[in-house]
Design a protein that fits this description.
single chain, disordered C terminus, five-stranded mixed sheet
């Protein structure tokens, strides 16, 4: 680790922290490392004692995610707060377009709970993260995929090649807290398009976050760049593109073997959000030195998918994962085709169109409308539509759909707009029935 690690033109750059430039000029190469360590240590002391202990426990794999068990009542309450925040904040945002594109996905309980869990169960923060997520979706896939699940078939050829290269993959091992390790190594990079590689990374990370256990425990990131030189522009690009994903990052470790890369990372580190800094660690040294340091944080040697000599990626587990994803999506596609062919079978929480329907969803709808009728009657017309939409979302949270018979007598799901109109009509019918009943009672008395 001798010799200059950065040219004078780099040091003259205004984006380089002043302290780093001065320390490099005064004391030589290792000062960059001291600066990074000091900066990360200072970020720890900005936290309260309790927050600091939690951050350190997360880093060392002593605790994993939120240790308080979830209960349905609390989640329902938090989802209700999310709904209220969304109604106040969504106007003019990409959320509105995503909701129109695929309301069943965007308003589903599963999708929203993902953002709650990865935002420490803070409803307002969850909404902001959801807005950021849709910004990421639009920048990578365009407006057509907003609010929709991205599949392998949605990726371009370079993105698929990036996935199969194993540059980013989920380790077969976990850390000592049982958390999944996301391994990133630039040695296997083959793709030239950063946009395509960002799409690949999006797909892998969102596939990982389908796991309820991962949502609760969080993940550990490991960037392993020993023996290679990485262009810092990649870090700026990917951190900007993927920062809005619903990820619960419990710790992030960067391993490098040369001070030039360490120094370039120091510039990026000091631009990271303050919430991430306490969970960020940089290790500089040989493969053995970095492995020893990772071990002290509960990350085992076999968590790194590398060959015995450490120079090649070992993609066997990763390619098996890729094949499993292909099969999973193929099965889901066949299930959809079968459902279309065989017709939809109404479930117990579905609202069925037609007279005198007494399905569980119809009963739930009548209860909701009856309890909200007084509020509905006092609202202006445009707010009545919003209340009807809230009831539709409430049925969706119960796992219900709005179904009607098509021309062939098969059940089909109606659009979100049609479901809102169905609820509005139910409110009007309920009000008319109530008025008629009161008239009869008035005449009788």
């Amino acid at each position: 680790m001798s010799g200059s690690f950065c040219c004078n033109s780099c040091l003259a750059n205004d984006n380089v922290p002043l302290l780093v430039r001065r320390q490099h000029e005064d004391t030589g190469i290792p000062s960059a490392g001291k600066e990074v360590d000091k900066f990360l240590a200072d970020s720890m002391f900005q936290l309260s004692v309790e927050e600091r202990e939690h951050a350190l426990d997360d880093l060392h794999g002593i605790r994993s995610g939120n240790e308080d068990p979830e209960d349905a009542a609390t989640i329902d309450r938090l989802l209700g707060e999310m709904d209220r925040n969304l109604k106040d904040m969504k106007n003019g945002t990409l959320y509105e377009l995503a909701e129109r594109n695929d309301p069943s996905y965007v308003t589903s309980r599963e999708f929203r709970v993902l953002f709650l869990r990865t935002s420490d169960y803070d409803p307002e923060a969850s909404v902001h993260r959801m807005f950021s997520f849709f910004e990421v979706q639009k920048s990578l896939f365009g407006e057509g995929k907003l609010g929709k699940k991205v599949l392998l078939e949605d990726l371009d050829e370079e993105a698929i090649e990036s996935i199969k290269s194993g540059v980013l993959q989920i380790s077969a091992s976990t850390d000592r807290a049982g958390r999944k390790i996301v391994f990133l190594c630039p040695r296997g990079r083959k793709v030239k398009s950063m946009q395509s590689e960002a799409r690949a990374r999006y797909y892998i990370l969102m596939a990982l976050m389908e796991s309820e256990e991962v949502q609760k425990k969080g993940i550990v990131g490991l960037y392993y760049s020993t023996g290679s030189t990485e262009n810092a522009n990649y870090h700026h690009f990917y951190s900007g593109k993927l920062m809005g994903l619903p990820l619960r990052v419990s710790g992030f470790h960067t391993c490098v073997s040369d001070w030039k890369t360490y120094y370039l990372l120091s510039v990026i580190i000091q631009r990271l959000p303050s919430s991430i800094l306490p969970k960020f660690r940089v290790h500089c040294g040989s493969d053995m030195e970095c492995l020893n340091k990772l071990g002290s944080f509960g990350i085992p040697r076999d968590a790194l998918p590398l060959s015995a000599d450490g120079f090649q990626l070992d993609n066997q587990h990763h390619l098996e994962w890729y094949q499993q994803r292909q099969q999973l999506e193929r099965n889901e596609s066949l299930a959809i085709i079968d459902a279309v062919h065989q017709g939809i079978v109404p479930g117990p929480n579905d609202v069925l169109y037609g007279r005198a329907r007494n399905n569980g969803g119809n009963r739930a709808l009548r209860r909701m409308v009856s309890s909200l009728l007084g509020v509905y009657n006092c609202l202006p017309r445009n707010f009545k539509a919003k209340l009807a939409e809230q009831v539709v979302n409430g049925i969706g949270k119960l796992g219900g759909r709005f179904l009607k018979n098509d021309s062939a007598g098969e059940w089909e799901e109606v659009s979100h707009v049609e479901a809102v109109e169905k609820v509005a009509k139910t409110f009007r019918n309920c009000r008319r029935y109530k008025n008629e009943t009161e008239d009869v009672i008035s005449v009788a008395t």
